[in-house]
Write a structure and sequence with these properties.
Elements lengths: L1 E3 L2 E3 L3 E3 L8 H9 L5 E7 H5 L3 H5 L10 E6 L3 H13 L2 E8 L4 H4 L11 H14 L4 E8 L7 H10 L4 E8 L10 H10 L4 E4 L5 H11 L3 E4 L9 H11 L7 H19 L1 H16 L9 H5 L4 H22 L4
Parallel strand pairs: 3-10, 4-5, 5-6, 6-7, 7-8, 8-9, 9-10
Antiparallel strand pairs: 1-2
Helix pairs in contact: 1-11, 4-6, 7-8, 9-10, 11-12, 11-14
Bound molecules: flavin mononucleotide.
């Protein structure tokens, strides 16, 4: 059991917000596979505030994934507050504020990671959102904007003071993007300074590392991003390691079944053609750890609908099954 404000979660494993990835189908899958909390892609507060239809579509959710954390980004306190209200009206159970996005088009508006060099704006935004937001409020930060002394501790204290219920720390500087290593020592330092739950994030690529970040930094929860793409089973693997001491890989049949389920969920929401496009990249992720997947990439690239998807994965999984039967190579 893990609590963020008054929201009780089954566990402290959280799916990171990931633009282009954590859409409704992906969230439904990771939730079913053990994540205690799932988070939307980052959503433009201004887009929500002006009633943009495409932006609003990002709020689509399903009872099975709830409580859902909806992440908003922006630099204008009033727009952020209005966006939070709209998100809650549409089913958000937690509001998360993005203070780490490194994308140039976000930074140049003063939003995302740019906020880390503007503590006054941080205070205004968190205060404005807190005032209108009757569900728990969380903030996701990085170590600072650019290499040098970290500001995570100062920003953490400030958002706590403004009423945030939890803080996620991805300990890279914004200008680093995803290069180098996450410096978990920053998470430890933030944890020592603030009382609200601290969620550690960054480079957790295995169940063992999930256990390690908890013990090494003292953080209260764990947020996983890239490692869940292609391996959404990582959440149940972490739970299984904790409860039974082992973290089994999914069977080939489970992997194949999940790919088909993912496509079916995507098709229902986006239609078959857009689902096929989205699924091409996902297939590369789902199979990247398996033998021979590179040889099948050209087949994956030609997927245009259910028929071509089923044919490509049938041929690839038969190839894998043959390998398994003859050499006992695979789980
Ligand atoms: C493709 C991609 C999209 C991302 N989108 C977001 C986002 O919308 N909001 C956010 O706060 N972080 C975003 N992130 C950062 C992740 O949430 C996470 O902090 C980062 O990937 C480090 O965690 P990991 O090492 O477990 O991947 C994104 C990362 C990637 C790779």
């Amino acid at each position: 059991m893990f609590c963020i404000g008054n929201v009780r979660l089954e566990n402290n494993l959280i799916m990171a917000p990931m633009a282009g990835i954590t859409n409704l189908p992906f969230r439904m899958i990771v939730k079913r596979l053990g994540a205690g909390l799932v988070t939307s892609e980052m959503i433009s507060a201004m887009g929500l505030a002006i009633g943009d239809k495409k932006t609003r579509d990002y709020l689509m959710s399903d009872p099975a994934e709830r409580p859902l954390a909806v992440q908003i980004f922006g630099a204008k306190p009033e727009a952020m507050a209005l966006a939070a209200e709209i998100a809650v009206e549409n089913g958000a159970g937690i509001i998360d504020i993005n203070m780490g996005c490194p994308a140039k088009k976000v930074i140049k508006t003063g939003a995302g990671g740019a906020l880390l060099r503007d503590p006054k704006k941080v205070r205004e935004i968190v205060t404005a959102v807190r005032k209108v937001c009757h569900v728990p409020l969380t903030v996701k930060i990085r170590s600072g904007l650019s290499a040098g002394p970290t500001v995570a501790e100062e920003i953490g204290l400030m958002v706590e003071d403004c009423g945030a219920d939890a803080l996620t720390v991805h300990p890279r500087f914004v200008t680093q993007g995803f290069s180098g290593h996450a410096d978990w020592a920053v998470i430890s330092r933030v944890k020592e300074r603030i009382k609200i739950p601290v969620i550690g994030n960054g480079d957790i690529v295995s169940p063992v590392l999930a256990q390690k970040i908890l013990t090494q930094t003292g953080c209260d929860g764990v947020m996983i991003g890239r490692a869940a793409v292609g391996n959404p089973w990582i959440f149940q693997q972490i739970l299984s390691l904790e409860n039974n001491g082992n973290a089994a890989e999914p069977l080939l049949s489970e992997r194949k079944g999940l790919i088909l389920e993912h496509f079916a969920l995507l098709s229902r929401i986006k239609g078959e053609i857009r689902a096929a496009k989205n699924m091409r990249g996902m297939l590369i992720s789902y199979t990247k750890c398996l033998p021979g997947s590179r040889c099948f990439r050209s087949k994956f690239a030609n997927i245009s609908g259910l028929d071509t998807l089923a044919a490509a994965i049938d041929s690839y999984f038969s190839f894998l099954q043959d390998g398994l039967n003859s050499e006992n190579l695979l789980p």
